[in-house]
Amino acid sequence: MFIQGTLLITGGAGYIGSHTVKHLLAHNERIIVLDNLAFGHPEALPQDRVTFVQGEMADAALLDRLFTEHSIEAVLHFAAFAFVGESVTDPLKYYRNNLAAPLTLLETMQKHGCKQFIFSSTCATYGNPQFMPMDETHPQEPVNAYGASKLMLERVLKDCGTAWGLRAVFLRYFNASGCDLDGEIGEDHTPETHLIPRILMAITGEIEAMTVFGTDYPTPDGTCIRDYIHVNDLASAHALALTYLRAGNETTAVNLGTGNGFSVKQIIDTAEQVTGHKVPLNYGPRRAGDPPELICNPAKAKAVLGWEAEYKDPRSHIESAWKWITGPHKGRY
Ligand code: UDP
């Protein structure tokens, strides 16, 4: 009988990584998490069911030891910095962490003959939308160092494919949101910049008010439209990407979104319905770099991975995030 190897999950103690770990454990995968805990939370992992290693993916000696001691079959690479604004003011931090650091990981994979890689890429690699909904053929012209660092790593992975047979799936996420439905794990960023958690933090009083960034966009209600993809749907996409690679398939890029767009105002209205509370609001100017609309065409994900979003209504995202924020953890580990 073929026994599957171990999965190395970088950034597995972070928001999307930890939800994916939970999903993969339910599918009986064997997992090592490598996380430097810059943003991750060890409490987000069931310590008795995963091997947790605190460390840097640029630490060649550590990586070599992990690949020597374990039969690592594939890497799921989540570890990255993801604050778009910061990437504009401090680009080298992003190129160092999101582009240079994974090179050590890839060198170690090459040395040990590990050739399967699932990469947390992003719709930010596309830059300003040229058509909607956006599919994988959309030109990739990122407008910030965050998107550029992710696009450059996609290129590195392709070149490794040509040179030594690495096969990768680039999962280009749209707007990740929502939390574990059991309320066990959730979204805990410091600082928290994302829309749904900030709306809920304004309701609980953790912040005074939520600021709507721009009400003069060319959209029906003047606020930005985004494609919100539930973190559990991202988790299931990673599992299917693994199945895809295990079947011997070639490198490919796949967008992950629902195909539906919701405005900031619609999300606020839904949060008020779900929680039964008014959201304390301020209205501010547009945030630099925010296009009016970003909507995913998820057709390729269905065709290639057999994946489709299960949680298409952002109501379920808000309900699960509200459960996390009002549950025993109060939204913080
Ligand atoms: N947004 C907002 N106020 C906030 C945070 C976000 O109006 O405090 C808007 C933001 O301009 C964008 C949408 O909500 O149109 C989603 O932003 P988020 O930061 O959650 O994700 P991003 O699109 O930056 O990945």
Write down the overall mean pLDDT: 96
- Give the second-level CATH assignment, the architecture of the largest domain: 3-Layer(aba) Sandwich
CATH class of the largest domain: Alpha Beta
Note the main sheet. 7 strands, parallel
Rounded radius of gyration (Å): 19 Å
Based on the structure, what is the oligomeric state of the protein chains?
A: single chain
Roughly how much helix do the residues carry, as a percent range? 25-40%
Order of helices and strands: EHEEHEHHEHEEHEEEHEEHEHH
Number of strands: 13
User: Distance N terminus to C terminus?
Assistant: 40 Å
Low-confidence runs of at least 5 consecutive residues: none
The fraction of residues in strands falls at 15-25%
**Number of separate helices:** 10
Shape: globular
Bound molecules: uridine-5'-diphosphate
Report a brief summary of the structure.
By secondary structure, the protein is α/β, with parallel strands linked by helices. The protein has helices spanning 15-26, 60-69, 84-89, 91-112, 145-164, 195-204, 231-246, 264-275, 299-305, 314-326; strands spanning 6-10, 30-35, 51-54, 72-77, 116-122, 167-173, 175-177, 210-213, 225-226, 228-230, 252-256, 262-263, 281-284.
Q: In words, what does this structure look like?
A:
The chain is an alpha/beta fold and 333 residues long. It folds into two domains: 6-177 and 229-256, NAD(P)-binding Rossmann-like Domain (Rossmann fold); 195-226 and 259-325, UDP-galactose 4-epimerase, domain 1. It is 38% helix and 17% strand. It contains ten helices and 13 strands. It has helices at residues 15-26, 60-69, 84-89, 91-112, 145-164, 195-204, 231-246, 264-275, 299-305, 314-326; strands at 6-10, 30-35, 51-54, 72-77, 116-122, 167-173, 175-177, 210-213, 225-226, 228-230, 252-256, 262-263, 281-284. The strands form four sheets. The protein has a seven-stranded parallel beta sheet, with helices on both faces. It has a two-stranded parallel ribbon with strand order 7-10. It has a two-stranded parallel sheet with strand order 8-13. Helix 1 (15-26) packs across helix 7, helix 6 packs across helix 8 (264-275) and helix 8 (264-275) crosses helix 10 (314-326). The model has no long low-confidence stretch (mean pLDDT 96). Bound molecules: uridine-5'-diphosphate.
